Amino acid sequence: MTVQHGVRAVENFWARVWQSPQNPHAIDELVVDDFVIVTGGQAIRGRADFKEWVLNFQATVEDLEFIAIETFQNSDGSRVASLWEMTGRNRGIMGTEPDGQPIHLTGTAVWNVRTDGMLESNRVERNAWELYRRLTA
Fold it and tell me: Alpha-carbon dihedral of residues 15, 16, 22, 25, nearest 10 degrees?
């Protein structure tokens, strides 16, 4: 059985950056300089731009709570998949009116992880369309 270094790296990221109390500044220690995230079909390139994206996203959800449901890796730990959910209250997510409505977002993230545990990239798919429709109904 292989050591779960990839799972540990991703779960550490979730715990430090997204779980309460959120600390997006931990990104500086956890991802490579040329990190790339593809979210909603859009690529965000570089650690600084990713960190700015996280700060902006977190500002749109009040009382943000993040739960990693399940995280698993390939045999060498270089690829990690994680299922997650996020709850909170609407403070303008997706450009909507900040009306305090409940937020429930679920998603899947697929990561590339270096052997030293640094995160190289992430591709995220989430139920954004369903959430947007509910918030704007």
Answer: -160
Alpha-carbon span 33 to 128, nearest angstrom:
28
User: Is residue 127 helix, strand or coil?
Assistant: coil
* Sequence letter at residue 21: P
Span 118-129, pLDDT tens digits: 999 999 999 999
Asked if 91 and 99 touch (Cβ cutoff 8 Å), the reply is no
Alpha carbons 85 and 94: distance in angstroms, whole number: 17
Q: 70 near 5, Cβ under 8 Å?
A: no
Residue type, 51: K
Q: Is the pTM here over 0.90, yes or no?
A: yes
What token pair was written down for 26?
Answer: 């931990």
Block means of pLDDT (10 residues each) for the chain, 137 residues, are 81 97 97 96 97 98 97 96 98 97 97 96 96 93
